[in-house]
C-alpha cells in the first residue's frame, strides 16, 4: 500500500519554457490577460478567490493574479514525489464558512469532503501491562466511546468530558456573528457627520449578537480568550494524556506555550468551525486541499472572473493623488483597475508591493511591529505502507480508525509541549534535514519500521513557507493570533476594516479579521467593503 503522510511540529531540539506555460494556461481555461479590469486581486489564495467570486457576482470585472503555477496559496495539492499527491501546506477543512460554501455552490463545483472521525489519537510510550499493548487515547464524535477511552486514565475526566465540549460549543457558537462581519467601526462611531455615525452603528450589531448569545457565559468567554489554556484544562481535567491532547490545539501554528495568556483563544479558534452542519468537526478534502481552491476557482470563473497563474505582481500602482490605479507585473506589464485587493500578508503588501513614498513613516513603522514569528515545520512524507503503532497494532497492514485521525506523537505530556516551546524561543532547534531525521526517529519509537517505509519527503521550515507560499516569517495565519492582533487590532487598529491608507487598495487575506485558517471570511468581508464603497462613491 502506498500513501502520503503529513506531519507538522514545533522546532524544538527534542523533538520553464514559454510553450509549457501556454499549454498550462490553455488546459486550465485561462483567458487572455487584459490591460484593464474593475478589480485586481493580488494572490490566488482561498481568500482572494472568495473575494473575486463575490465581486464578480456583484457586477465587477475581476481578475486574480497568482505568482505560482498552482492556485490556492497554502491550500494546494502538489505532486512532490512521483505518483504521490500532497496537501502540501494546509491539510484539513473545518473553519470554512457555511454561507460561502453554499453561496458559491462549491459542491456543484466539485468539492467533496470526508469527515475526520476519530479526530485524535495519542499513543503513549510505555510498557504494556500483562502482555497488553501500551495505552493510547482516541477521541472522536461518539461521546460514549470517548468516555470509555478517557476512563482508561480517569473516570472523573470521562464523566465531565461531555460537559467540557458543551462549554466550548457555547463559546464558539457565540463567536459566529463576529466572523462574518468587519470589526466595530470605531472611527465612524466617534467622528464624522451624523450620517456617518448612524451608518457606523450597524457595525455594533454582530458584537451585540455575540453578547446576547453568550449571556451569562460572558465571563467564561473573557477567560478563554485571555487565559492560558492550562488554567482552564487543569480546572476541568486531571489526566495528563487528555490535557496534553487538548493543549496541542491551543499551540498549533502559534509561537506560544499552553501556559501563556491567549493560548485559550487559539484552542477556541480551532473548534469554532463546522462541517456538514456538525459543529467543531474537521474533514479531509478529496484530492487534497487543492480541491477547495479548485472549486473556488471554478465558481469564480463560472461568474466570469478571470483567474491567472504565473503572473507575479511587482508593484501596486499608486497615482499622484494617492489612489491605487492597478499593478505592474515583474515583466513590466501594467494592468489598470479601479480597485486592488491584496491577498498577501500585510508585510508583503506594504513593505514590498506598495511604493514606500505613498505611505507615512509612522504607518510603515507600525507595519514593522506586526508579529509573524512561527514555530511551524511541515514535513510531507510518501510511504509505501501504513505505520503500525505499538499502542494500536495493525499487523495485517490494514488501516485502523486511528490512521484517519490527527496523530499526536511525543506530546502525551503538557511538559513536553512546554519544553519544546522553551527550546524554540531560545533558538535550540535543528537544521532542516536534521530536524526531519529527529522527527522520524521519534515516530519510529511509536511505530517500529516506520522509517523504512518512507520513500520520499518534503520539508518546509518557516523560511521555506515564506519563500514558497509568501507566508511572512513562515506564519501560517498571516500573522500571530495573539490578543494584540485580533479583532479591532488585526493586523493593526487602522487596518481592521480591510481598507488601507491608499484609497482603492484593500486587504483580503488571513492577516485581516477574523484571522488564519481556510475560512474565507476575510475575502468575504473585504469584498463587501469594496462593494459598499463603490456604491457610495
UniProtKB/TrEMBL annotation:
Record flagged with keyword Cytoplasm: no
Keyword Nucleotide-binding (UniProt): no
UniProt-listed InterPro entries: Amino_oxidase, FAD/NAD-bd_sf
Compartments in which it is found: Mitochondrion matrix
Gene Ontology, cellular component aspect: mitochondrial matrix
Keyword tags: FAD, Flavoprotein
GO molecular function, one term: oxidoreductase activity
Gene3D superfamilies per UniProt: FAD/NAD(P)-binding domain
Sequence ranges assigned to domain Amine oxidase in this UniProt record: 275-530
Pfam family, one: Amino_oxidase
Function: Probable oxidoreductase that may play a role as regulator of mitochondrial function.
Family: Belongs to the carotenoid/retinoid oxidoreductase family.
Subunit details: Interacts with COX5B; this interaction may contribute to localize PYROXD2 to the inner face of the inner mitochondrial membrane.
PANTHER family: PHYTOENE DEHYDROGENASE, PYRIDINE NUCLEOTIDE-DISULFIDE OXIDOREDUCTASE DOMAIN-CONTAINING PROTEIN 2
Protein's name according to its UniProt entry: Pyridine nucleotide-disulfide oxidoreductase domain-containing protein 2
Species: Muraenolepis orangiensis
